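Ticket closed. Logging final result for NADH dehydrogenase [ubiquinone] 1 beta subcomplex subunit 10.
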Amino acid sequence: MPEDHDWEAYKVPPTRTPVSERTTSVPNPVDYFQTAFNYVLDAPVTLVREWIEKWQNKNKFYYYHQKFRRVPDLSECLEGDYLCYYEAEAQWRRDRMVDQEIVEIVRERLAACKQREGPNQFQNCAKEMELLAQVTKAYQDRYGELGYHGNARTCLMKQKHRMMEERKAAQEN
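Final structure:
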């Protein structure tokens, strides 16, 4: 637009909206109702809500980051200590679920990389493929062939047998 523009062609909007003049001297009942509502209902509710929020901010509780203390492994439990057996079993189940989620996350990352890279997936997603191979091998070494009803005792026995086989193979070499 040139500096000497035509004010008639490009009119400037008004700087402020004109206030309507009251045509009656009778007060508006809506104003009284809004004021009464604010003082009777809204103000107490707002005060209680602010007090609750202030109290909750002092005591933050993140329910989705529940941390369990580590309990002794099944191999560290004393004979006949059934409570220790139960806690070790619960710990093993939590560890298994965490390991399953780790495998699933790595698998999803690889799928996303393959989708993103298309035909170049073999060279651009090599790190993800190698990581998935390592994670699944570790998962299979620990939990493979246990089935759905596997428990901490059978997992411990499997690990013991694997360690004995590795030791026997090392002695033969």
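Residues 82-117 form the longest helix (36 residues). No further action required.
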